[in-house]
Amino acid sequence: MTNIIDALAAARAQLLAPGAPFELTETQIDGRAVKLYRNAFPNLPALIDAGRVHGDKLFVVYQGERWTFARFFAEVDAVAAALREQGLQRGDRVAIAMRNRPEWAVAFAAAALLGAVPAPLNSFGLRGELRAALADVEPALLFCDPERLERLEGDTGVPGCRIVLAGGGTPEGVLSYQAMASRPVQELARPALGADDPALILFTSGATSQAKGVLSSQRAVCQALFNIDFIGAISAMTSPQAVAAIMQSGLAPTTLTAVPLFHVSGLHAQLLSALRNGRRLVFMHRWDAAQALDLIRDEKITQFNGAPSMVAQLLAAPGFDDPAITGSLGGLGFGGAGLPQPLIRSVFAARPDGLSGIGFGLTETNGVGAAGSGELFKYKPRSSGITSPIIDVCIADPDGKPLPAGESGEIWLRGVTVMQGYWRNPDATRDALVDGWFHTGDIGYLDDEGFLFVVDRIKDVINRSGEKIAAAEVESCLLEHPAVIEAAVFAVPDDNSGEAVVAAVVVEDSGVVSSEALREHVAARLAAYKVPVVVHVRSEALPRNPAGKLLKVELKRAYGAQPVVAQ
Predict the structure, then answer these.
(1) Beta strands in 145-235 (DSSP E)
(2) Fewer CB within a 10 Å sphere, N or C end of the chain?
(3) DSSP character for 87?
(4) Does residue 538 belong to any structural domain of this protein?
(5) Last residue of a domain, which of 163, 193, 223?
(6) How far, in whole angstroms, is CA 518 from its chain's centroid?
(7) Final residue of a domain: which of 193, 224, 247?
(8) Domain that residue 524 falls in
């Protein structure tokens, strides 16, 4: 298969050469030279404004609504003018907490055009989780939908923070999105933003119980968006037959968006990339494989990217093999690592000539790390693709020494797209960023052809249907129950969600509290996806080593083979 490697080398050389679209240059960040794309947009307002050229092309489809780019930008400009009248200043934070819908995108773009800092929140969170994130970022405004407003009980908990409601009636003291969007459009001057000015705060769930805000610069976000275009160009040049088939179909590029927009995979790779390049997005209110098939058929969807569990459910849904339903679908994509090989084989069988692919990146790197699709994905389906030209990758041993190709260690990433730090959390920033290297907590290796393989995690994080869950957060919640003495939360493999959340708790008397009661206890305090599918109640202490360290390996061995159906 040297032909694909030769094609890859030729494509990279052509795309990155001086004068080429993806020409590289260098700049200094914190005294270190980093590579970047010379032709990337300088800031988010410039990137967003580039989408205006698409005019009357269809942009977003959502529950019967069909938004053109022209309509989208008319509402963006109206809302931005209203925010300016509300006193929104450059650098102010604007929180967004709602399901995927067009108003989410309008709120993001309007805030960004004013030089404010959008801070999308995890919309699955319950009141306590939402209030904690709001207290962290202290936004000037919160855009939300009726469901999030109800969860917050109409109060952000942040003094001076105004609420803007999209959809439904507008209670007293709450601003109406519709009223803002219906205003006459005004011309607004763009702020003079520097490359290091703040652009975005996204929340990530690491191994700690409190989700952390990831602060990224204007340059980091725009370079990451340009890197998505580079990945597309490399994929096209190394998979000419797949591109020819897509072009021959004559279908407009259309992505089914079920990934939440508060994720980097939804925001960068779908919303902002489509906005920049004039592609159509079809938003799903919530994931449902049967409804997804209906949308693929009705909207002639050409691409679906989602969590591995979503892809598996889509492939298994009755009707997927019917060309009359899914004949337009040219590619399937998923992020992550360690994908089940049967799932990969199913994707190749379903779309043998498609541009299906995989990527590895983190919120802290704005999604940049490695990626591969089409023939590159087929060549090494167990890998996470080839590394980006604007990110340095180091595989380090426990002492921090670089390891040679083929040897596994912690994956470190350094480059222009790496975050500035965790918002108002210097201790966590110092732990994660050392000499510019972001310590991912993932274990992997680079092979001798530059493909990255991710094989394990150091962090105690569970990946359930693409949502990251800190075991410590669920353990802390269980320990709030008066009957619980000890709690351990861990992942076990699950065919539907990739990993299932399982808990083992110690109580004085196993008859005092039931597994279901403990699940309900967690469900009342944390987002539904964090609730363990089963809680094993025991009276004997949890296993520990002589130093007192909890032995989750033994718990996984004891409970991992048991069914994970909720009791």
Answers:
(1) 162-165, 175-176, 198-204, 212-217
(2) N
(3) T
(4) yes
(5) 193
(6) 29
(7) 193
(8) 461-559
CA gyration radius, the chain = 23
> What is the token pair recorded at 451?
């493909």
Total of domains in the chain? 2
Q: What is the CATH number of the domain that holds 168?
A: 3.40.50.980
Sequence-distant (6+) residues with CB within 8 A of 196 are 217, 218, 219, 420
Count Cα atoms within 13 angstroms, Cβ side, for 390. 33
Q: Is residue 310 a part of any domain in this protein?
A: no
Indicate whether 240 belongs to any domain.
no
> What pTM was computed for the model?
0.87
pLDDT in tens, the chain (567 residues): 459 999 999 999 999 999 999 999 999 999 999 999 999 999 999 999 999 999 999 999 999 999 999 999 999 999 999 999 999 999 999 999 999 999 999 999 999 999 999 999 999 999 999 999 999 999 999 999 999 999 999 999 999 999 999 998 889 999 999 999 999 887 889 999 999 999 999 998 665 557 899 999 999 999 999 999 999 999 999 999 888 888 888 999 999 999 999 999 999 999 999 999 999 999 998 899 999 999 999 999 999 998 877 888 899 899 999 999 999 999 999 865 556 677 788 888 888 888 999 999 999 999 999 999 999 999 999 899 999 999 999 999 999 999 999 999 999 999 999 999 999 999 999 999 999 999 999 989 999 999 999 887 777 788 888 888 888 789 889 988 999 988 899 998 887 788 899 999 999 887 889 999 999 999 999 999 999 999 999 988 888 765 556 788 888 888 876 545 443
The answer as to whether 107 is a domain residue is yes
CATH number at residue 486: 3.30.300.30
